[in-house]
Write a structure and sequence with these properties.
This protein is an all-alpha fold. It is built from 17 helices and four strands. The protein is globular, with a radius of gyration of 21 Å.
Length: 428
């Protein structure tokens, strides 16, 4: 089976995000929310839900030293705790289409929001079992919401897909940035209680659930039917595996930043509040790059050079945070933010560019994100283990040079202007 040449560069405004439900179901009938304020409220609620999908990662990273001191958790245990929600993305994400078919998308979203709120709230209990259980539950909710929300945007805001997708991506990064910047001040305002500060991030989840509850009636007629066709041959495609490898390697960078950039900066002498602020600014820079990089990459003849440049930029910023003079870490963190945001958003964009239609894109998305995020979860774990083994972060810098090299190689393959070769077969 050979890779097929791709069409001319994609008009990014037409297809920014992937409808994850299309992998197993045909498109539902056109869905028309009520005009006026209810439609604006519907859009704002989707953006608010997106905001809740990243605080789990960055809030823990800013308080990781305090969590370790308060619970007696060692470096290896801390690495597992930061890795667990990332691992959930690969393990639980494939459940989302089944939940949408079984309960309807709107009800599934509400249930997952409540699971996310419960899991986040459990982290207010300053005990290792509660932290682990809460992180697992919240990770399950995030993994499935990650899959369902792009489908809702495509279904309900087809005419405004570019604008809504932009707001959604900004909300993802904004949630991570605010959690990174405000979790330490929250803990101080609560008398030094790191557990209460972590648990308070359940409040915006509950607000989103309350705002979402009235939307369930809108989805009663949109529940999907089983697909008559199946995509075959994807897992035998070299190009599909190159895309998966690129996603896995970039996610090693991404989640290591969320989990370990603040502890790295604190180890270099910065206090927790300043380290959290630097992480927050870095993530805000990711937000800007997420809006700029995908349309630029999509309009190129191929994305090989783009993949290499954004990978090296993200790596250079991370190395600067580890090795450059402390007085310059603000600049390196900003560089890392722009590079990481571009790298992550381009990796997701490649799923669309390498797919001939939305059905293939959805199947490719399922493969790339489940396997890619599952392998990417090793990133924070390996950082913690290398830190525990070496007693510092110099070995982590060497490790990221290796990851960057492999990511460039995968990006050169994934960036070729080809379609992933598949065939459609009847389900019968």
């Amino acid at each position: 089976m050979t890779d097929r040449p791709a069409a001319p560069p994609l008009d990014f405004a037409e297809e920014t995000l992937i409808d994850a439900e299309a992998a197993t179901v045909p498109p539902p009938p056109p869905h028309q929310p009520a005009p006026g304020l209810p439609r604006l409220a519907f859009a704002a609620t989707i953006v608010l839900i997106g905001f809740n999908l990243r605080p789990l990662y960055s809030s823990l990273g800013t308080l990781l030293p305090e969590v370790m001191a308060g619970t007696g958790l060692g470096p290896a245990g801390a690495s597992l705790l930061t890795t667990l929600p990332v691992l959930c993305l690969g393990i639980f994400g494939p459940m989302a289409p089944h939940l949408a078919r079984r309960f309807g998308t709107e009800r599934a979203v509400l249930g997952l929001l409540l699971v996310l709120a419960l899991g986040t709230g459990l982290r207010a209990i300053a005990e290792i079992p509660a932290l682990a259980a809460g992180t697992l539950l919240a990770g399950l909710g995030i993994a499935n919401l990650n899959v369902l929300l792009p489908g809702l945007i495509k279904r309900d805001f087809a005419a405004e897909a570019g604008v809504m997708s932009g707001f959604y991506v900004m909300a993802l990064c904004g949630g991570a940035a605010l959690a990174a910047g405000f979790t330490v001040p929250l803990a101080r305002a609560l008398g030094g209680s790191w557990s209460a500060a972590l648990g308070l991030w359940a409040v915006p989840c509950l607000v989103a659930a309350l705002l979402w509850a009235p939307q369930m009636q809108r989805g009663e007629t949109a529940q999907a039917r089983l697909s008559a066709l199946r995509v075959r041959g994807l897992w035998q495609s070299r190009l599909a595996w190159q895309l998966t490898a690129f996603m896995a390697l970039q996610s090693m960078f991404s989640f290591s930043v969320f989990g370990w950039l603040s502890p790295i900066l604190q180890a270099r002498g910065l206090d927790a509040a300043e380290a959290g602020t630097i992480l927050s600014v870095s993530v805000l820079c990711q937000m800007a790059a997420c809006l700029l990089a995908p349309p630029f990459a999509a309009r190129r003849a191929d994305q090989r050079h783009v993949n290499v440049v954004v990978t090296l930029t993200a790596c250079a910023g991370f190395l600067g945070c580890i090795f450059a003079p402390v007085s310059t870490v603000w600049g390196w963190a900003i560089l890392q933010g722009f590079g990481q945001g571009a790298l992550t958003s381009v990796a997701l964009t490649l799923i669309v560019l390498r797919s001939e239609d939305s059905r293939v894109a959805a199947e490719l998305s399922s493969m790339v994100q489940s396997v890619g995020y599952g392998l990417g979860a090793l990133g924070p774990l390996l950082v913690g283990l290398l830190h525990a083994w070496s007693g510092g972060f110099a070995a982590v810098g060497v490790y990221f040079c290796v990851v960057a090299g492999l990511c460039c190689l995968a990006g050169l393959g994934a960036g070729r202007a080809l379609y992933v070769p598949v065939r459609l077969e009847s389900a019968s």
